[in-house]
Amino acid sequence: MTVTAVALSHVTAEPEGRTVGDRPESGELAYDPTVVLLTVEEAARRLSVGRTVCFRLIRSGELESITVGGLRRVPADAVPEFVNSRRRQPHRPAHTVAV
């Protein structure tokens, strides 16, 4: 009888073919459900907006944020709350530009 050793370093344990220990690709952040606070940049990335727009949403009070030791942080659950509040608002047509 022949016994063949199998390397377990490439066993898929994460979605999308990612393997345990793989690092996110450049510019991609791994999603961690245990994260409670996000940086403004992380919140902006989740909303698919720029950092400046995210700060504008925070300043206007539309997106909740707190300070921790002088650092601005967005509670992770504030992002889906913001999206849900926007979805509940009546639809306003986009501005059109006459050509």
Automatic annotation (TrEMBL):
Keyword flag DNA-binding: yes
Protein name (record): Excisionase family DNA-binding protein
Domain of life: Bacteria
Organism: Streptomyces lycii
NCBIfam families in the record: excise
Molecular-function GO terms, alphabetical: DNA binding
Keywords from the UniProt entry: DNA-binding
Signal peptide span: none
Pfam families given in the database record: HTH_17 (PF12728)
